[in-house]
Design goal:
This protein is mainly α. It is built from 3 helices and no strands. The protein is elongated and about 60 Å long.
């Protein structure tokens, strides 16, 4: 195992990691049988985002169940939930 560290200046973490992966995934860059894992701040960020995604899905499910009990209509509950989610993202089906 070889640990490699680096400092990021003037760039964001996501684009830097994408460039590193692109370079490491080029054919012939690493010898056959050699693998790599990315850790540090990137790994912590991925763990945090996974946790946030789980919380978001749990909240959406709880909201849907509450709306379903409140309005006793699957279609109405789904429409209200979809509207609230789409309004947060400012997504418009007409304009994409």
């Amino acid at each position: 195992m070889v640990a490699v560290t680096g400092r990021i200046e003037g760039r964001d973490l996501g684009s830097t990691v994408a460039d590193v992966r692109k370079r490491l995934d080029q054919p012939g860059f690493l010898k056959p049988g050699v693998s790599y894992t990315l850790g540090g701040l990137y790994q912590q960020q991925q763990i945090a985002f996974a946790g946030l995604a789980k919380v978001f899905l749990a909240a959406a499910a709880a909201e849907f169940l509450l709306l379903l009990v409140l309005y006793e209509s699957f279609l109405l509950a789904a429409a209200i939930l979809a509207t609230s989610i789409l309004s947060v993202t400012a997504f418009s089906p007409r304009y994409g």
